[in-house]
Amino acid sequence: MTTSVPGGEPRDLGGDELVRVLATLANPHRLRVVAALSRERMYVSELARALGISRALLQVHLRKLEAAGLVTARVEVSEDGKAMKFYEVNRFAIQLTPETVEAAERTLTPPGDGPGEQKTKGSM
Amino acid sequence: MTTSVPGGEPRDLGGDELVRVLATLANPHRLRVVAALSRERMYVSELARALGISRALLQVHLRKLEAAGLVTARVEVSEDGKAMKFYEVNRFAIQLTPETVEAAERTLTPPGDGPGEQKTKGSM
DNA sequence: GGCATGTGCTAACTTTTTTTGGCATGTGCA
DNA sequence: TGCACATGCCAAAAAAAGTTAGCACATGCC
């Protein structure tokens, strides 16, 4: 109803996921990467040249984008035997309004919980 | 069409603005602040108690939220003469999809431009 | 006055994120 | 073999963000 999802079937993201996706998108380089890939898929070196940044830097950003589920990597071997890693954007649709934020906040990991915490709520 | 706006009449945000808003929302504390204020407006100390964080910390976050245009402050004098600073959320509606990101990216400040740059585009 | 409430500020510290540079691997081809 | 192009990784530096602690001010009230 409010936010939609990167991977799999459309469903709402939880608070922690939302924070992660927003943090990932909140960067000029990564925004450019998403924009570039949304126009056409590209392989790493190609993308690095297109954006004018180093491969090392680009890889870090691509890794974050992938971790957030915003892009997907696909390794393909070109005709001349080179192994190229192609990236493409995943479909996603996130709606941000005070209401959706309020809803997401309810599923945030409670403060004080250090790293490695899980929601001990339902069954299991 | 894609993203909407915090202040004034609805209009789309530019790339830099989008990055700023996303970066602002990409934080658990600030997400909680927006959620809390979207339920009911509160004054600083009250909000700090509600969230269980220090006023100093809260103020930093409130400042960022205000700078991003997500919340608004309003100083009011209570019956007993205390000056309280009430905060409330501003209306905003941002849509995030590969397309809206692509559109926003086009208006990003070109890379390499250090701090203190302006878009030499429209009038003014 | 002393205590509770509200506000503000800043300096310093800790943590996270971003960026750079170097080095290693593999391929095809002249 | 040596060059061009593809991939990967890692350590260290640099920059940005988050957090804490302490102090300042004002008010009303016992």
List its salient traits.
homodimer; 124 residues; alpha+beta; Arc Repressor Mutant, subunit A; 3-stranded antiparallel sheet; 5 helices; 42% helix; disordered C terminus; DNA-binding
Task: Describe the model.
Two copies of one chain form a homodimer. Chain A has five helices and four strands. Chain A has 124 residues and is α+β, with helices and mostly antiparallel strands. Chain A has a domain at 15-99: Arc Repressor Mutant, subunit A (Orthogonal Bundle), CATH 1.10.10.10. Chain A has a three-stranded antiparallel beta sheet with strand order 1-3-2. Chain A is elongated, with a radius of gyration of 17 Å. The two termini of chain A are 27 Å apart. The model of chain A is unreliable at 115-124 (pLDDT under 50). The interface between A and B is large, with 39 and 38 residues.
Describe the SSE topology.
2 copies of one chain form a homodimer.
Chain A: H1 15-25, H2 28-39, E1 42-43, H3 44-51, H4 55-67, E2 71-77, E3 83-89, E4 94-96, H5 98-105
Antiparallel strand pairs in A: 1-3, 2-3
Helix pairs in contact in A: 2-4
Chain A binds a DNA duplex (30 and 30 nucleotides) through helix 4 and strand 3.
Tell me the span between the first and last alpha carbons of chain A: 27 Å
Give the uncertain stretches of chain A in residue-range form.
115-124
The strand order across the widest sheet of chain A is 1-3-2
Q: Decide which structural class fits the backbone of chain A.
A: alpha+beta
User: What is the architecture of the domain at 15-99 in chain A at the second tier of CATH?
Assistant: Orthogonal Bundle
Q: Mean of the pLDDT scores of chain A?
A: 86
DSSP helical segment count of chain A: 5
Give Rg of chain A in angstroms. Answer: 17 Å
CATH topology of the domain at 15-99 in chain A: Arc Repressor Mutant, subunit A
β-sheet strand percentage of chain A = 15-25%
Q: Please identify the top-level CATH class of the domain at 15-99 in chain A.
A: Mainly Alpha
Q: Based on Cα principal axes, name the global outline of chain A.
A: elongated
In quaternary terms, these chains amount to homodimer
Instruction: Give the chain pair forming the largest contact, with residue counts.
Output: A-B, 39 and 38 residues
Main sheet attributes: strand count, strand direction, barrel closure of chain A: 3 strands, antiparallel
Bin the helical content of chain A. 40-55%
Q: Which series of helices and strands of chain A comes N to C?
A: HHEHHEEEH
> CATH superfamily of the domain at 15-99 in chain A, called what?
Winged helix-like DNA-binding domain superfamily/Winged helix DNA-binding domain
